[in-house]
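Appendix B, Record 12. Input sequence as logged:
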Amino acid sequence: MALAAAMYISPCPAKFSRSSISFAPRFSCSQLGNRVKVRCVSSSVDPSKSSAVTEKPLISTKSGNWSWRFQGTAININYEEHREENSANEKRILMIPTISDVSTVDEWRVVAKDIVARKGNVKWRATIVDWPGLGDSERPLLNYNADVMENFLTQIVNAADSPLRNSVDEDLVIVGGGHAATIALCAAGKGQIKPSAIAAVAPTWSGPLPIVFGRSSEMESRYGLLRGTLRAPAVGWMMYNVLVSNEKAIESQYKSHVYADPDNVTPTVIKSRYALTKRKGARYVPAAFLTGLLDPVQTRAEFLDLFAKLDGKIPILVVSTKNAPKRSKAEIAALEGAKGVTKFVEVPGALLPQEEYPVTVAEELSQFLQSISAPAPDIRQ
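Logged structural output:
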């Protein structure tokens, strides 16, 4: 979508590197009803080298809908929950997908199951939620922007009827990719949510077109024209089908920068992502994201300040990737050693490492979770 859109708004198309759009393939699991006995791994990962855990407990999976009320409208939000059966005194993880044309809970599913099944000093329950307008959530025609998405995140964390509010322990760790991580940091910095820790996986802050063409008044006018066209009743679907809703475009994006290894982009992956683009209302959030309306900040300095504001308040993990697109890579690299960043690691992958290399990402997240939940040492003599 980004490459075609860049050509649409520019008379001299530039070489394009889409900053944050990601696509999430569906990995299959060996299941019996809602019970899973084995860890699911990407075919590109050697499971014998990925984890020291050899025996897995029974993991239950529950899917559901939560009603998000926004501007007087109730919007059904899809979520799924993974936990070890008969486990007590769990701590909670909220996983939020990378915002993209085909964002979905699928991208975190393997990681969630892996973390929940691991042995450690704390047991975890993982909840993954689809953003409004994406995945299996409802997709109403709203004026989507960063504030709308931040409002959603704040409500699902704090609402009395939220699927996150039925835990014995109220501590909540938030794990997000791309723009999702940055929106979580914004909400935490304002005190709207109070997580016990945040893990930012390949965090981004600029939409595809602004990171390439900038934010001059002329470009903002072009973004507005493109956004309005995509949202229009008839011509919007026509343009969306040309720019996004076709398998060749999706495959090209995956192979160019969403995944690091093109061999991991299978026909099954593409067909499952293509199906998401055919749902009613599918074009509304991508129109906002592509043109920068979902950007939580507008400069690198503001991006770094989000982390600095939380320095000394909560632990923050940043997961970088070896093959992220050049512009996105530069923004993530600026976080290494930055104020407020507790730990900085690099893993294989591009813009969606949690799906392409889920076991590797799960390992890094598990180490971080154990480090922040370890009991305080006994200093008594």
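The CA atoms of residues 202 and 320 lie 5 Å apart.
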